Structure formats: structure tokens, C-alpha cells
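Hi U.,

Before I forget, here's the chain from the pilot set. I'm dumping it here mostly so it's searchable later in email.
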Amino acid sequence: MIKNFQNQVMRASKLLAAGTVCALWFSTGAQAQSDNSFTLTPYKASYTAYKWGDDVGEAHIELSELSDNQYSLLYTSKVSKFFLSDKRSEHSIFTLNDSTVVPSQYFYNRSGTGPDKELIVTFGQQGGEKIVVENGDIYNWNGEFDNQIYRLDLAKQLAKGVTELDYSFVNYRGELRNYGVKVIETETLTLPYGKLDAVKVKLIRDSKKRETYAWFAPSLDYALVRLQQFKDGDEQGDIKLKSFQPE
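Structure:
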């Protein structure tokens, strides 16, 4: 009986990894207009999180325009299984200057089973020389994005047909990171939303333990429609689009 209980706890803990998967990759609707310009279309989207085929939670994204050239990108997720839970939010405030996405502030919050976590990152606007992590490190700012908005540029580049990319950003732990992105193929997905043609990409990390794949739909301005992650060959989560509504 005790062994069975331990197995259930371990299984539930792995299921909650879907919350981490949600926080890694959500994209915005960036629409390419030419080689050098693109616009942002506000929208709301919702996703269902799965683990081993079980529905374990949901995630939501909202892109909105706050004022002329200033935008908000809000992501929330809630995943639970048995008595374990994981609730997260990411909020980016940024501007669009001459088709360049410029981060201003980034907020991260995590609560549920295990330790809670909060993070605030501020990007200097005058001269763009510093990245300040509240109660943490200070970095020289050399064009790095925050944990979310580098995917805006990714959507733009995918629309242009670029197949390999490289991004530097500050992650939700307040650490500087660099990831590569490589286009794998184009395929038709069957999702809770319905059938969609999507571009499949792979996230390239230094570590070989994790594998992350993401699918972006051209018909939805290259918004993310599916995300799947593995660690040491074991699926951590599979996130699929449920609804998408332009604002």
C-alpha cells in the first residue's frame, strides 16, 4: 500500500511538470508585413495540458495593446493531479519600435505544491544598458529579450521562411540563457481547436536531457498551437490549442 502511494506521488509530480512546459514556449500572434516590418494583433488563446493522454490543466494567453506601441503579454496556467498543484503567470510589458520588440518589465509568479516563486526583471530604456533582476543579478543589456517576447521575433522569422534561429534572453529564474531554434517540418495537427497546418520547430539547448518541440500555425499569425517536452525520453507534458480569438 505504501509503495503504491509513493508511485502515485511520483506520477503526480511528473504530471505537474506540464506547468513548467507551459511556461517555456508560449508565443504571440506576430504577423509579417515585409522583410523588415510586422504588426501585432491582440488576441486571447486557451490551451489544454496533457500528460500521458490525461487532461491535467489549462493555460491562457492574452496579448493586448496598452497604448501607442506599448503592449502587454499575459500568460497564466493551472495544472493539478491528485493532491498536487502548480499555478503560474508571466506578464511582459514591452514596446514595438521600428519593428523591433523591446522589453520593459517582466513579472513571474508561481504557487502551489512546493516552494512559491516571484520574479521581477526591469530592462533599462534610456540607452538600454542594464537588466535588473529584483533581489538578484544586474546584467549589461546587449539586446536580450525576456522569457516570453523573443517568440514575437520567432513568429516574424518563421513567416519569412527562416529555418534556423538563435536567441538570448532572461529566463523565469532571472538567468541569462541562449537557445537555438530549428525548423523540422510542416504537418497537419488534430487539436481540441480543430485541424491546423503548423510549422514544427525544435528548441536547441546545450543540455541533451531535455527535448522540446513546438508547432506554430501560419493561419493564426504563427501563434503557438502545440508544445511537447521530454526529459530523458519521458514526456513531461503536451500542450494543445483549444481556442483562439483575435481581439
